[in-house]
Amino acid sequence: MRSFVSEPTTDGPVSWSVLGKLGSYLAEYKGRVTFALTLLVLAKLSGVGMPLVLKRVVDSMDMSLLAEKGIEIIVVPIALLIAYGTLRFFNVFLAEMRDTVFSRVNERAQRKIGLEVFQHLHNLDLEFHLSKRTGGLSRDIERGTRGINFLLRFGLFNIVPTLLEIALVTSILFINYSGVYALVALISVVAYISFSIFATEWRTGFVRQANLLDSQANSRAVDALLNYETVKYFGNEAYEADLYDSNLTSWESARVKNRLSLGLLNSGQALITAAGITVMMVLAARDVASGNMTLGDLVLVNAFMIQLFIPLNALGFVYREIKAALADVSTMFALLDQKPKVKDKADAKTLGAGSLPVEFKNVSFHYHKDRPIIRDVSFKIAAGEKVAIVGRSGSGKSTLARLLFRFYDLCDGQIKVDGTDIRDLSQHSLRQQIGVVPQDTVLFNDSIYHNIQYGFPEASEQQIQQALEFAQLSTFIDKLPRGWDTKVGERGLKVSGGEKQRIAIARVVLKNPQILIFDEATSSLDSKAERAISDALSKVAKNHTTLVIAHRLSTVVDADRILVLEDGQIVEQGDHNTLLQKGGVYSALWEMQKSDAEPAIN
Ligand SMILES: Nc1ncnc2c1ncn2[C@@H]1O[C@H](COP(=O)(O)OP(=O)(O)O)[C@@H](O)[C@H]1O
Ligand SMILES: [Mg+2]
Questions:
Q1: How many CA atoms lie within 13 A of 152 on its CB side?
Q2: Per-residue pLDDT tens digits for 424-459
Q3: Which residues does ligand 1 sit against, CB inside 6 Å?
Q4: Is residue 320 within 8 Å of 204, Cβ to Cβ?
């Protein structure tokens, strides 16, 4: 059972409206759902039929009748017994059929909802993703889909048939015997259910506690083992063992309490079952004695009562899990209700290809209203021109790039591409035309080949070869035993910063958009490699509208215009020579970098 209850689940508010939403996903499969429900009813009917046949078997085997009628009577119970066996088989077989028929519906609902959430998350803005832990998101989705599975399987195929069975049995008892029998069955079932729910609520705290301590002890042990070297450096084996053991001690007592409470739950349930059956049997025995009932009726009543309690056995578990599943599914659906801050307008235009000029017009922006980041910035990049932005770290350079890519909407002013405000363009078409080599490149945990191909999935091998030669990756790849099939590791941690940047350059070259943004694209390269790549980048930039962000000024001397950004404001602009002559911030920066004795500068 532990695998089901793995971790303490989300403690969100349980919303029953979730069921309605789930139902709408089922609606698509009306036929299948109806078929599965029909099988469900048939399975239950054969289940309820068993005691009825059993009664006939017992009645027909009444010894006094047997003696009177002779041989012919022996045949009847055999036919009945075969009927009994058949019913028993169908009871299970139909339930299996039902699960198989329904499985597609269940799986499809999970797939559709999972996909919907995934797509929705990609539509949400960068801000949302920066403030949310990705690990947390994927856990929410995983739990949510598991919750849906549980709700559909257990909700539909445990709760519904159980209720159906209770209704059938009490009606049969009511119709065939006196109302007292139906009443006793009903009262004991209601008592059983109420007790189970009450006791389960009471137990939940213990179960949570035990699970929590379980994962706590576990993660502490894993942490200690991961820090194997540190433990050895400080000779702290005994200390770690003590810590682990004190965790285990609390775990032990929590488990014992948990077990004790489960024992109480099960015993209470058994008491109610036994009391119910006993009362029923007393009533039946009295009726048999007075000749109102046959022996078969007594067997029937007994069998019904036992059968009634079987599905209720797991009720405590199912109840707790359904509550948790509802909370998990609500959490996941809440994600779907999140609205993106950056949205396409209903009549958004599509940005065409061709040469695209860019204009920033009195742009102001802040992430938080108390701290302005970009202040009244205006500049133009003509189609095919190359403009550089330089400035200290934190001055807002990368922010300008993010604004052009429309990761955020402006607080004031306008950014125009090809004369159109980017808020009037569809995000997709805008981004299609912009290639970014970001400051911190993150790679997919896949091969180098795949990571480059990502820039243009339809690219041929030859085009990829060209791109990687362009980014000067070929010598590096030739040295790798597995060539471009080498995996780069999670987030690209198995390649160096410089290699990562070159992969990022190669994939943008492959994408071949009209507008290029290089955000310190060569900062992780050594001076020699940087010079080589800068030359290459200048070559691509020739026919493109290019925004280069750099802190090493040597890489931007050939720009058509250089903007010097300080505290989100442009304080100087002009080409390299003009700015040097001016003797302002730029020339001071230039002198400083030269005196840093960096041979790459010249
Ligand atoms: N998502 C964010 N939320 C809040 N502040 C941010 C965010 N991103 C960047 N900043 C802040 O904005 C300022 C400018 O950042 P950035 O544009 O990355 O500077 P740089 O010129 O070094 O590229 C920095 O001080 C940074 O702390
Ligand atoms: Mg930056």
A1: 26
A2: 999 999 999 999 998 888 888 899 999 999 999 999
A3: 130, 367, 373, 391, 393-399
A4: yes
Helices 160-176, 295-309: axis angle to 10 degrees equals: 160
Asked if 364 and 412 touch (Cβ cutoff 8 Å), the reply is yes
Model pTM score: 0.75
Q: For the residues of 519-533, what is the DSSP string, one character each?
A: ESTTTTS-HHHHHHH
The rounded distance, in Å, linking the Cα atoms of 65 and 101 is 46
> What are the backbone angles phi and psi of residue 388, rounded to the nearest 5°?
-110, 145
State the CATH architecture for 12-158+316-341: Up-down Bundle (1.20)
Nearest to 266 by CA among 314, 305, 311, 232: 314
pLDDT, mean of residues 115-135:
85
The residue whose CA is least distant from atom 24 of ligand 1 is 394
Of 129, 342, 373, the one to substitute when testing ligand 1's pocket (max ligand atoms within 8 A of C-beta) is: 373
Please write the tens of the pLDDT for every residue from 177-189. 888 999 999 999 9
DSSP states along 414-431: EEEETTEEGGGB-HHHHH
Confidence of residue 382 (pLDDT cuts 50, 70, 90): very high
How far apart (Å, rounded) are the C-alpha atoms in residues 255 and 216?
A: 14
310: how many CB neighbours lie within 10 A of its CB? 12
Among 151-155, 463-467, 566-570, the minimum mean pLDDT is found in 151-155
Is the pLDDT at 535 greater than 80, yes or no? no
Tokens of 470: 């362009």
What is the distance between the alpha carbons of residues 158 and 317, in angstroms, rounded to a whole number?
Answer: 12
Going from the Cα of 392 to the center of ligand 2, the distance in angstroms, rounded, reads: 9
Phi/psi of residue 516, each to 5°?
-120, 140
Please state the domain extents for the chain. Answer: 12-158+316-341, 178-292
